[in-house]
Design a protein that fits this description.
The chain is an alpha/beta fold. It has helices at 84-89, 148-156, 171-175, 179-187, 196-211, 229-238, 241-245, 266-280, 285-290, 324-334, 377-380, 406-409, 414-425, 428-437, 446-476, 501-507, 521-524, 532-535, 566-584, 611-615, 618-625, 630-641, and strands at residues 12-17, 22-28, 38-45, 47-48, 57-58, 65-67, 110-116, 125-131, 162-166, 217-228, 251-257, 393-398, 482-487, 594-598, 604-608.
């Protein structure tokens, strides 16, 4: 673990950007050394927001000197609680780094660039862009996402990168939509409605594409990576019309994606928003925009992506079902259009930023080279719904993602679970298959029902969906270009491979336990936790986690140990960082016909894909989940994850 100790007066650095006609004044990163110096430029505005619920506009004009020494404002969000990731990590609150970030609805679109010192336009380093998760809370400027340790590791490995983190609109401010807002946006000349957070992310990609060369980065070698709701956002970008027409990233890493059960159209999203507007007595755009932003925070926690008929390419939802695999073969056999070309991990987007660019010839296998770009789009047979290039993808999940929803799941009783499953399935056969597969009945003992429901929620909301996307994207790429992993390494504090545990290893910024060999009773049984944005009602933003198994006898705890020692932590951290950095540099992270394992107990390496049958419940998915289809499975997972009052 890397402890970040910032000086009260960090050393200032300056970097002149000729393309933007400004000098950015940043800082020397606290982890910078004479052997590996690197800088950080914070709070750079990449877009502006003309009005609430309007699409953002790219920032192109800067003053002669731009202050980039402080983090910029973040999107307004509820205060007074730890972030989801902080709750999940299990670090005592008094050991968490202290950080105060200003909130501003209209000045929250800013980014942070961490890069090795001494770069020029000819350096052309790979660029990684992090999309944070957290639902309706969190920011790219949070201490846990500080890029210093990962950039330092890239320098040590001889594959230096530039890492960008950024802020975008979240919650109701980022994803509200209805027919009234659509008409307002249309009158203003905006494309689509809702998905403001996704559009902000596109503006960030556009800014990086146009300006990262001035920082020494390669705009043709950009890797998106993100976790949780941020990973879900990346999937949305992969399946967007914009990515089919003009991709602005070369590859993507999707870590533990968490989706809401359905992506409503504008009318359905309007029904959700109408509840909020009625509560706030807002009847038109004028009154909605006149509301103080504080009144909008914590509302509409389940309002996320909207299928507005503009953002996504046709047929994109087919990737969320295992049945898509056969359908894809059928459509390809009858379609007159050529199959989208997979160019390998050295993929370049269709529009070169620098003529005559060539990829590095560093060691490491590559799966192909891009073909000439001189051909017209009509020659290639492209359409907005049929992408001409398919980005390489790393995708995986953790084995205990559903602990995200421990609190509401703990409120279920066995008879209530059975009734809810039957009501959702609307089929005796299908509901019986589900209940039998997860060993749930009205007679299931009270002490056993919660673990069984958590297993069902884990599969329905996370594991099965991740596997569907992995298999279908790989099928779409002709059986190559998708690298699957499973993260089963225990979190250093929780002793289980919980949601977001991988972030502790990847970013290496989280405080670790002082003693990991002789845990106290409190360490062996930390408070359980939940992800507020995903499992509390809109009017329950003040809920706090208080569910724990502390009533167990001490005898039950004797077998418990903390398996994460310094060796296993370092081994998993180094393996994950090395694989991610190799991928960003255009190399294969591991063989794409294998699955890579991170944990448990420090295990790392390539394994046969048959391992997934043991590490995940694939046989149960085939017999119980696939017959239901994605819509019912996701609805089942969402309702069970939100507790009996949902």
């Amino acid at each position: 673990m890397t402890i970040l100790q910032e000086d009260s007066e960090p050393r200032l650095v300056e970097h002149h950007h000729s393309g933007l006609s400004t000098t950015f004044r940043g800082i020397e990163h606290p982890l910078s050394t004479s052997d590996a110096p690197f800088h950080q430029f914070r709070g750079i505005k990449y877009a502006s927001i003309p009005a609430r619920f309007r699409q953002s506009k790219l920032q192109t004009i800067y003053p002669p000197v731009t202050d980039a020494t402080q983090h910029g404002p973040i999107c307004p969000q509820p205060n007074g609680r730890l972030l989801v990731e902080e709750l999940l990590f299990g670090v005592p609150e008094d050991r968490l780094p202290k950080q105060t970030l200003k909130q501003d609805e209209f000045e929250c679109l800013n980014l942070n660039i961490t890069c090795p010192a001494g770069l020029t336009q000819s350096s052309r380093l790979p660029v990684m862009i992090w999309i944070h998760g957290g639902g309706d809370r969190g920011s790219g400027s949070h201490w846990m996402y500080d890029a210093g340790p990962l950039v330092r590791k890239s320098v040590e490995l001889g594959t230096p990168i530039i890492l960008v983190t950024f802020n975008f609109r979240i919650g109701l401010l980022g994803f509200a939509g209805n027919t009234m807002i659509r008409e307002d946006n249309k009158a203003a000349g905006d494309e689509g409605t809702g998905n403001y957070g996704l559009r902000d992310q596109q503006r960030c990609l556009e800014w990086v594409s146009q300006n990262i060369l001035g920082f020494g980065g390669n705009p043709d070698n950009v890797t998106l990576f993100g976790a949780s709701s941020g990973a879900a956002d990346i999937i949305c970008h992969l399946f967007s019309k914009a990515n089919a027409l003009n991709p602005m990233f070369a590859r993507a890493i999707v870590q533990s994606p968490v989706f809401e059960p359905t992506l409503p159209d504008v009318s359905a999203a309007g029904w959700q928003l109408s509840r909020v507007m009625s509560t706030l007595q807002a009847t038109d755009m004028t009154s909605l925009r006149a509301l103080k932003v504080e009144k909008l925070l914590g509302l509409g926690a389940h309002i996320r992506h909207i299928d507005d008929g503009v953002f996504f390419r046709e047929g994109w939802m087919n990737h969320f079902s295992h049945q898509h695999k056969g359908a894809a073969r059928s459509s390809r056999s009858t379609s007159q259009k050529p199959h989208p070309q997979y160019y390998g991990n050295s993929l370049l987007p269709p529009s070169l930023h620098i003529a005559g660019h060539r990829h590095s010839s560093r060691s490491g296998s590559r799966l192909g080279t891009p073909r000439s770009r001189s051909r017209s789009r009509s020659d290639q047979g492209d359409t907005p719904e049929q992408p001409s290039t398919l980005q390489p993808l790393i995708i995986g999940d953790s084995s205990s993602e559903s602990l995200l929803w421990s609190l509401p799941v703990s409120l279920w009783t066995s008879p209530a679970v059975v009734r809810r499953v039957k009501a959702i399935c609307q089929s005796v056969t299908k509901s019986s298959n589900i209940l039998r597969a997860y060993d749930i009945s009205s007679a299931t003992p009270e002490e056993e029902i919660v673990p069984h429901v958590l297993e069902l929620v884990n599969d329905a909301r996370c594991a099965w969906v991740t596997d569907c996307i992995a298999q279908n994207t790989k099928e779409e790429r002709g059986g190559h270009g998708v690298w699957r992993y499973v993260f089963d390494q225990e979190g250093p504090h929780r002793n289980i491979p919980h949601h977001a545990a991988d972030l502790m290893y990847l970013f290496d910024t989280c405080p670790l336990p002082d003693s990991i060999s002789s845990p106290s009773s409190d360490q062996a049984c930390p408070d359980m936790f939940f992800d507020g944005p995903f499992d509390v009602d809109d009017d329950d933003s003040s809920a706090e986690p208080d569910f724990c198994f502390k009533d167990r006898d001490q005898d039950d705890l004797e077998w418990e140990t903390i398996p994460v020692d310094e060796y296993s932590y370092t081994k998993v951290r180094d393996a994950m960082q090395s694989a991610w950095l190799a991928f960003a540099s255009g190399k294969d992270p591991w063989r794409d016909d294998k699955v890579f394992v991170f944990g448990p107990e420090g295990e790392t390496g390539e394994r046969p894909t048959t391992l997934l049958n043991g590490r995940r419940r694939q046989n149960i998915w085939k017999s119980a989940l696939e017959p239901l289809g994605y819509q019912l499975v996701s609805k089942l997972g969402a309702e069970l994850s939100r507790g009996p009052c949902s």
